[in-house]
Design goal:
Among the domains are: about 30 residues, no CATH class; about 210 residues, Rossmann fold (3-Layer(aba) Sandwich), CATH 3.40.50.1100. It is built from 14 helices and 13 strands. The protein is an alpha/beta fold. The longest helix has 17 residues. The chain is globular, with a radius of gyration of 21 Å. The strands form 3 sheets. The protein has a 6-stranded mixed sheet, with helices on both faces. A 4-stranded parallel sheet has the order 8-7-6-9. The structure holds ligand LJ64HWYM. The ligand N[C@@H](CCOP(=O)(O)O)C(=O)O binds next to helix 5. It holds the Pfam family PALP. GO terms for molecular function: threonine synthase activity.
């Protein structure tokens, strides 16, 4: 696997070592060697693997191993057959969004309840291959739950630098239940990333946050599985929530590779939806700025979007905006809760961050960016049970909006 700096273009090397950033400070990106990859042969291979049950390559990530981590030895793979998640259509949600067709890809059905598993199985497997036995992250709760689960499966140690702001209690409990050691830190996710960048190497900790390029490689599988489920014919738009922007970066990179190999005919456009109180990337593009100005105090009901300084913005810019002709939009917490209530009542269900995708799609159709005749897929990133407080809030919003004065029952007339 080759690691190239996004800033200076240098190739980073360091055998047996975890690589996150170049010496110049730029993010590292991986380059897929697509020589010899034949689209028809790959399609047949992926179909065969899909038809198998409970083999390491039958899951929705490692099924696409050739496009994710070709050289990783099979005995380093730690997997729970993650991916293989549902793709749903629901008439009420399509009507609410206003598009001709709408699919919802429920990464919330992953083993730890979020899309993080797609990337984490790859990051942890790669770390084990390099010889690490201690895995670390900072997190608003989904990343830590996922990392703790895979570390426990591998019999390794998990250390979580837990922010004292913007996390959901049930996600923290899930992380602890998988046996992770929790170290409280002051500040939010952004402070945690700064801490790990400074100290992880000295503590021989393998960092599993999405600034680790292997996380992005794993998350590309969401694009691959979506394409596979739709028989390699993609919708016009893919709409996803933007916090740390790993999803946007991975989706854009995955689509770019699918197109290059000839597995899809064209790259769908990407829409990134940020919460109004944590929208530095949207603001940067809106103001045509060339670099991101962090939001000091992110504020949103969507715990997974509680991020003011998304580390992956250069990758999201390259892959989701430039190569996938992407757009950004921001939505209010109220919009998020309203969309969440609809997704929950459709029987699919999700956490608030995921609902931002549907709220954003509705906004983009209303403002004319997306045409009603176009088709879209929204990515649902986390499970409904991840954030119980938000369930209560969206339920009361739903009940208020539906409250009508019931006519008093009439007494029965005697015959
Ligand atoms: N929502 C995330 C925050 C971003 O984490 P990362 O894994 O992309 O670094 C979380 O669950 O922690």
């Amino acid at each position: 696997m080759r690691f190239i700096c996004m800033e200076c273009g240098c190739e980073a090397s360091g055998s047996g070592q975890a690589l996150y950033r170049c010496e110049c400070g730029g993010l590292l990106d991986t380059v897929l060697d697509d020589r010899g990859l034949d689209a028809d042969r790959l399609k047949r291979l992926f179909d065969v693997r899909l038809s198998e049950r409970n083999t390491p390559l039958s899951g929705g990530v490692w099924r696409y191993k050739e496009l994710i981590h070709p050289e990783l030895p099979m005995d380093s793979i730690v997997t729970k057959n993650e991916g293989n998640t549902g793709l749903y259509e629901h008439a009420d949600l399509r009507e609410y969004a206003g598009t001709r067709r709408l699919w919802l890809k429920a990464q919330s059905e992953n083993p730890s309840g979020s899309f993080k598993d797609n990337g984490m199985t790859v990051a942890v497997s790669h770390g084990l291959w390099l010889g690490y036995s201690r895995f670390a992250c900072t997190s608003t709760g989904n990343t830590s739950s996922s990392m703790a689960m895979y570390a426990a499966l591998a019999g390794a140690e998990a250390v979580v630098y837990l922010p004292d702001q913007g996390v959901s209690l049930s996600k923290v409990l899930q992380t602890e239940a998988y046996g992770a050691q929790l170290v409280r830190i002051e500040g939010g996710y952004d402070a945690g990333i700064r801490y790990l960048e400074e100290h992880a190497e000295a503590m021989r900790l393998y960092v599993c946050n999405s600034l680790n390029p292997l996380r992005i490689e794993g998350q590309k599988s969401i694009a691959f599985e979506l394409a596979h489920q739709l028989d390699w014919r993609m919708p016009d738009w893919i709409v996803l929530p933007g916090g740390a922007l790993s999803n946007a970066a991975a989706m854009g990179k995955g689509l770019d590779e699918l197109k290059r190999i000839g597995l899809i005919a064209s790259v769908p456009r990407i829409a990134i939806v940020q919460a109004e109180g944590a929208a530095p990337f949207h603001r940067m593009l809106l103001n045509r700025e060339s670099s991101l100005r962090p939001v000091d105090q992110p504020a949103t009901i969507a715990s997974a979007l509680h991020i003011g300084n998304p580390p992956n913005w250069p990758k999201a810019l390259r892959y989701a905006i430039e190569r996938a002709r992407g757009v950004t939009v921001s939505v209010s917490d109220r919009d998020i809760l309203e969309a969440k209530a609809r997704i929950d009542r459709s029987g699919i269900g999700c956490e608030p961050a995921s609902a931002a995708a549907l709220a954003g799609l509705r906004r983009l159709v209303a403002d004319g960016t997306i045409h009603p005749e176009e088709t879209a897929a929204c990515l649902l990133t986390g499970h409904l049970l991840k954030d119980p407080e938000a369930i209560a809030l969206s339920l009361s919003l739903w009940k208020d909006s539906k409250q009508t004065v019931q006519p008093a029952p009439r007494p029965l007339e005697p015959d």
